[in-house]
Every structure is written in C-alpha cells, then in structure tokens.
Design a protein that fits this description.
Layout lengths: L19 H7 L23 E3 L14 E2 L3 E6 L2 E6 L10 E9 L4 E10 L3 E9 L6 E9 L4 E8 L4 E9 L6 E13 L10 H4 L10 H8 L6 H9 L5 E3 L6 H14 L5 E4 L18 H15 L4 E5 L13 H19 L5 E6 L8 H10 L7 E4 L7 H19 L4 E5 L24 E2 L5 E3 L24 H9 L2
Parallel strand pairs: 12-13, 13-14, 14-15, 15-16, 16-17, 17-19
Antiparallel strand pairs: 1-11, 2-5, 3-4, 4-11, 5-10, 6-9, 6-11, 7-8, 7-10, 18-19
Helix pairs in contact: 3-4, 4-10, 5-6, 6-7, 8-9
C-alpha cells in the first residue's frame, strides 16, 4: 500500500504543510483593501539595531523554512524562490506560500522587505499575521507585479502578540503565472520583547519522576512484599512517561495537573497521547476515541492543558506503524488527517512543548516508508519522532534506525528531525517477542542526549503488554510486580 504524500517545498523545523482547507482558513485575516496595488516603498532605514526573524530569506540553500500551500508549487532556482501559481482560483488565499513560527510582540516596530517579479502583470497580497485563529493580520498589502524585479519595504507596528506569527504571499484569483521572490526580511527593531526559541530540556532541571506511577503506587501499598524496596529504588524512583487516553475523565484538567506538578518541581514531564480511534487495531490495548470528532476535541483539550509549560509529548504509539491493519484507504487517510491535526494543536501549545510522532521500531517498518508516513502525518510541524516505544531493541540499533529515517526525510522532503528513544526495557535487547517476553532488562534511565534528543523510559517497567507471554493473566496497562522484578534482574 502506498500512502498519499504531497509534494512539499523543502523545509526545516518551522514548516506548516497546508491542505486547501487549511490554506483557506489560514488567510482569514482582513479582506483585501479596496484601493489598488501599492507602488514600491523606499527601503526603511534606521539607526537602531535590528534582529532578523526570517530564516533563509536569501534562498541561498535548497533547504529552507518556507512552505507552499494548495495551488502553488515552489523551488529554489538560480538563488531565487520560484513559485508556480495554478489558475482557476477565486481568492488571493487560494494559492499562497510563506514562513511560520515567527514571534511578534504587540506594539513592537517591524519592517517587512522583499524583492519580487512575475511573468505577467498582476497583483498579489503580502501579509504578516497570526498563523492560528483568529488569523489577525497586522500587515496586509496588495502589491503590483510585472516583469520588472522590484524591491518593497513596509515598516509597521505590530497590533498582535504571538509566538506563532507568519509571513504569507498570496497569489490566488489571478490566473496561472510564475512569480520569483528573493531577499525576504522581517526585522524587529531591538528594544522590544521577543519570544526566543525554547528548549524544554535546558529550561528544566532533569526529567520528572511521577509519584503516582503504577510501580510507585504498588510499592507504597505493598511495603511488606520483599520485592517492594527494589521496585521502588530501581523503577518507581526513576523518571518515566505518563500515558493519557480514554481512561482520563477530564483530559485537560489531568494534563494541566501533571505538567503543573512537574513545573513546580522544575522538572520536565513526558506525556504520551494514546487515544487514536481504532487504537492498537483492536488488540490488547484496543480502544481510543469513539469518532474523529471526539479525537479532535480530545487532543485539543490535551494541548490546552499543557498551557505552554515545558513538556515532551509523544503522539499515538503504533498509529503510523499499524496503518496497514486499517481496512481501506479512506480509513487510513482519516487517521493521517487526525495525526496531522494533533501536530497542529500541539504545535500551538507553545514553543516550550516538544512533540514527537511515534515512528515504530527498528525491525517493523522500513525507514523510507516510515519517513513517508511521518511526513504525511504532519511531523514537519513538530520537533520530531520517537522510536522503540514499548519494545526491546538495543539503543544503538534504534539510533541507526532513527538516523536512517532522517536520511529518508532529507532525501524526500529536504528536512530532518530530532528523535527520542524508549529505553525502558531494552537492557538485554530483543528476543524477537514483543508481548511480555522473559529475559528482558531495564535500559538506560531517562536522560538528555545519548545520540538522540533524549533517551526516555516511555513504557512503564512492570506494566503488562497484554494477557500474554510471562504474564498471561495480566491485562494491558496493569502493573505486575513479577514483570518488574524480572526486568530488574534480567530474567
């Protein structure tokens, strides 16, 4: 089965892939002015220091932060950005390109500058606006184009404050033509506040230890058991992820309480969003949201609960690797659309939240196929992907897999991503079994780095994979002290 992919302009981390529907919504700022196109403005000069916000506005490399939406195709050609605009569109925003993830501060002075030409005499719309609802435009200009290359420069004071601003060029409603853009610049006059790129790992002091994890609760409640002290010291006292799903009765409150407790301790929480419809293809961990609309509401509430606080979020284990088990192309596309929606909602949660789409494991889906699925699911919107969740493959093998996925992403789409490795149970590697196999062992405790963004205990050691293997009577997700004990000793 070949899963649908769209041709994308090569991008870096700040990429916002667009469908036609999202392109229409994205440009819902103020309507075009009634007056005609503006004449070129003189370059604005100032003695104050300025800070450049746009990445690769000179198009000096093939890999940039720029995206193109529906009805446009784009590439770097002779050091300029070439945009091929389709005909048959109605509105300016029906064919657009741009760059997202730009911080804007209300009341701050900025200048947007660019050079542009076209193969026909026409006009286009240039904006600086919020990339999310309500899509407020703080700069909205209609620009005349013809075969002469012209330089435009527009000083303005921002009326909005957001970490998620964007520059767009909108070409729709004008017929088919080719435009070329170069030397795009969005500068901020220094002295105002800005939202710097955030790194939740360095913003916090280590990973969060969940005092309410299954092994922690068991150890507290079973102090007379001879295994309790070692389970507490070797497992319950270590940082690990908390999983969220349809068992959470109020997902926004539960997420908010968890990240709030971690923030109070100045620690970094790791959360797993695990509620995709048709979860686990009906196997041991089956379930999930009852409908696509229910999932969209759930993941939106999940993202709202983060409230911009530092966190790592791991998105829907197995959802991409198990695409093949879904019954038809329409169902597969629905899942991809839901995962893309999740990336968009989590991206809007703030730049202190790093989100990672699950990318399977080293011996499941080929790296090139997984790269196509990750791209189709919107992974370009977020920090990256995660590998080896709930599995046992050695860290070195998983790092090789993650690097191979990145090589495929680079070859196909022009970007690479950070990734995370689950090391919770890979201390003895894999024996080829996945469901409560014997002889496995705890892996490297959660830490930053280690060849990836982080090594993290994602699967809770001691929680069952299902009623199988060496715990045939323990349902998925339920803690079994014997499983934990054997992971401690590698038996």
């Amino acid at each position: 089965m070949t899963f649908p992919t769209k041709t994308r302009f090569p991008v870096s981390r700040r990429f916002l892939p667009l469908t036609l529907a999202s392109a229409l919504a994205l440009a819902c700022g103020p309507a075009l002015p009634e007056t005609g196109p503006e004449a070129p403005a003189l370059e604005h000069t100032t003695q104050a220091a300025t800070t450049e916000l746009v990445l690769n506005g000179g198009f000096n490399s093939d890999t940039t932060s720029w995206w193109n939406g529906a009805n446009t195709q784009s590439r770097v050609e002779n050091g300029q950005w070439r945009i091929d605009v389709a005909g048959g569109t109605t509105n300016a925003w029906d064919a657009l390109v741009g760059q997202s993830g730009l911080p804007l501060s209300s009341g701050q002075a900025y200048t947007l500058s660019f050079t542009v030409t076209a193969t026909v005499s026409t006009s286009i719309r240039a904006t600086v606006q919020m990339e999310n609802a309500p899509y407020t435009a703080t700069l909205d200009k209609q620009i005349a184009l013809d075969g002469t290359s012209r330089r435009y420069s527009f000083p303005f004071t921002s009326s909005v404050g957001t970490a998620q601003g964007q520059v767009t060029f909108q070409f729709g409603g004008r017929g088919a033509f080719v435009a070329r853009i170069d030397d795009v610049s969005l500068t901020r006059t220094d002295g105002g506040t800005t939202v710097p790129p955030a790194n939740p790992i360095v913003m916090t002091n280590g990973f969060y230890v969940d005092p309410s994890s299954n092994p922690a609760v068991w150890a507290r409640n079973n102090g007379g058991d001879g295994r309790a002290a070692r389970i507490q010291s070797d497992i319950a006292s270590k940082p690990m992820a908390r999983w969220f799903g349809n068992w959470n009765t109020n997902i926004q409150t539960d997420v908010a309480n968890y990240v709030g407790a971690a923030a109070a301790a100045n620690k970094l929480p790791v959360l797993v969003a695990y509620n995709i419809p048709g979860r686990d293809c009906g196997s041991h961990s089956g379930g999930g949201a009852g409908s696509p609309d229910a999932y969209r509401a759930w993941i939106s509430a999940f993202a709202a609960g983060l409230n911009g606080r530092p966190a790592l979020v791991l998105i829907e284990p197995d959802a991409l690797a198990q695409l093949d088990c879904l019954p038809d192309d329409a169902t597969r596309q629905t899942r991809l659309d839901l995962l893309r929606y999740a990336t968009e909602r989590l991206r809007s949660a703030g730049n202190a939240v790093w989100s990672y789409m699950d990318g399977g494991n080293a011996r499941w889906i080929a790296p090139d196929v997984m790269a196509q699925r990750l791209n189709a699911a919107g992974t370009a919107n977020i920090r990256g992907f995660v590998a080896n969740i709930s599995n046992f493959y050695p860290t070195a093998e998983t790092l090789t897999y993650g690097n191979a996925v990145n090589a495929a992403l680079s070859n196909r789409y022009g970007y690479t991503k950070g990734f995370v490795v689950d090391t919770s149970r890979n201390g003895n590697g894999s024996n080829g079994e996945w469901c409560n196999p014997g002889g496995r062992k705890l892996g490297t405790p959660s830490q930053a780095g280690g060849g990836a963004d982080a090594l993290v205990w994602v699967k809770t050691p001691g929680d069952s994979d299902g009623a199988c293997g060496i715990a045939p009577g323990t349902p998925a997700g339920q803690f079994n002290p014997e499983l934990a004990w054997r992971l401690i000793h590698g038996t």
